[in-house]
Amino acid sequence: MHSDHDARIFKVLAGVLGKSAAEVAQLAASQESAGGDAQFWDSLQHINIILGLEAEFRVQFELMVAIDLKTIPRIRAQLASMLG
Amino acid sequence: MMPDIFSELDADGSINGYQRAANRIAENPAGLSPIRLRLLSAFVIHPHLPTLIVESARMGMAAQCDVGPFNVILQELIDPASATVTGNYDAVLILRPLRDASPSLASGFLSLTPEAVTEQIEAAVRELESALRRFRELCASVVIVHNFSLPRFPLLGLLEGSAEESQSVAIRRLNAGLNRRLRAIPDVYVLDFDRVCAQVGYAQCQDDKSWYMARAPLSPLLMPELARAQATLLHAVRGRTRKCLVLDLDNTLWGGVIGEDGLSGIALGHGGRGLVFREFQEAVLELFHRGVLLAIASKNNAADALAVLREHPDMLLRESHFAAMRINWHPKPDNLAELAAELNIGLDSLVFFDDSPQERAQMRAACPEVLTPELPRDPMGYATILRRLGVFDKLSLTREDRLRGEIYQQQNQRALLRDSAGSLEDFYRGLEMRATIRPVDGLSLPRAFDLIHKTNQFNLTTRRHDEQTLRAFLESESTGFFVLRVVDKFGDNGLVGVAIVRLHDGDAELDSLLMSCRVIGRTLETAFLSHLVSWATSRGATRMVAEWIPTAKNQPVARFLPDHGFEPMVELPEKNRWQLDLTQSGISWPDYIERG
């Protein structure tokens, strides 16, 4: 797991969700321990998160992948698999 | 604060960048005028709101956006209890894709006969038209209807451009129908959404991912461009249109410094760098022909600068295009204040265009009311910035607008005559004025509306009646609604005055009396009032009642009523209610003004 990726992911989420990076990090930790796929944000925030991540990491998610990126653990895993 | 937000954003430009900028604007909307918007759309529009907030702020407005319930546009318009009707919004924006307004034109087009196409177009126009007419009866909010964009993928492929009947042809007819039929409804405006899409590129207007994930089709490329068009229209609807462009000369109208490079050394012409400045002048000239006043504020020796205006073969702008000039070494904020005073307009009507970052910074600090756009270092971008500024855009273009530049030139000659004339009465007589006063009709209504909404100084009551009210005055037997046209030896000043008199119980109430500042100080107001008094008397009125409602700008009419023999109606002078007994006194028409 790249901590450099984490910082950039948290920055994008913080911007969209209107939270601090520390709050997003907490959210990430609680989602890691809880597991599951409960989505924390609404569908519009989801779109903005996807667009933000695509711009930040210069990647394109396929539609089905994008729909599935509902939690921070999944975002981490997906970016790790795309970027190494 | 605002310019920082915009320059950061312009460097970033991402949708999330817009969100951050919109948050900062919402936190501190100081200096912006609030405007409440209701968006009705047949798709998810929320991602667009940050761009709309940002582009509105760029034009001086703090947009508060509410989104109506998804996909019930017509119901929201015609239901007297809907939040759209009862919400008292400044403007309602309607965005309907074709598949919502006319499913058969959108997806069943190729199976329609030509007759059926015509029927479908008529049905789509009529449906919206009748909903909007109903809405107009219910509520006064301005409505902005977005027209339909041409298809991203032409149904006939190669043939789409040449076939006599095609979906593209049908959409153009539909848009023309909307234009024609909706224009007739007061305070309803059509935004050319198709033009915005063409500007961005039809292929780039929809974001597939956001459409499939959230039913939000507008692409990140389209949203800022659309928001800019919407903000420009809202700016014009609110009557914030700026009136005068003040230009620097060196490195703005031409390349180089005339005082150093000389007439043959400056860059201006048909080649290379000179073409950049020539085409910038073309953009300026376009504004001149749309009725925008031009002025100069330049630090130069006047003789050097005037030589370019008079003698340089490649200048498109000549001395005669400028309504006023300040070519001297004084601070530019002082010069702009003087220009505004000379042209009888406020600083908030000026736009200042100067290549020097120092001059721009000084102007923003000293005169925040003046709009001072940020310019790129490369003058190649000047014409584009000027053409995209939007703050000169108006909702209609009248004959007076097209001729305004000329009218101000004649004005300069009139001022010369005043300097040489003897007595004031000789001066008036020498002007050979002819005043024509007529009831307002359909043709003169747009100009009357224009005057009612922009005249600040010679305006007794500054009542900004909306178009609907004015149309009611036209119909009313008991209301006199007049326009004044003035012609003099220098030319036709056009329609320059409006008056509204309402009769009730033997009284004639002077609801409104206003005149363009171009014709103030020539006793035309006395002639106008004389006409109103005769009209009221002929309709049986025995008393004229009037009031002066003071504003920040209408001091020029403070003494108008007592100077014409009106008596205070109550002892308290601050009430400003005045009366003229029509059985005892009239107002005589000045004999040096010919009746037209």
CATH first level of the largest domain in chain B: Alpha Beta
CA-CA gap between termini of chain B: 54 Å
By DSSP (H or I, 4+ residues per run), the number of helices of chain A equals 5
CATH architect. name of the largest domain in chain B: 3-Layer(aba) Sandwich
Give me the count of strands of chain A.
0
Q: Based on Cα principal axes, name the global outline of chain A.
A: globular
Instruction: Tell me the helix content of chain A.
Output: over 70%
Return Rg of chain B in Å: 27 Å
**Mind telling me which CATH architecture of chain A this is?**
Orthogonal Bundle
Q: Stretches of chain A where pLDDT falls below 50 for ≥5 residues?
A: none
Order of helices and strands of chain A: HHHHH
Report the CATH topology name of chain A. Non-ribosomal Peptide Synthetase Peptidyl Carrier Protein, Chain A
Report the span from N to C terminus of chain A. Answer: 9 Å
* Residues in helix, % of chain B: 40-55%
Overall pLDDT metric of chain A = 87
Largest interface, Cβ cutoff 8 Å? A-B, 17 and 17 residues
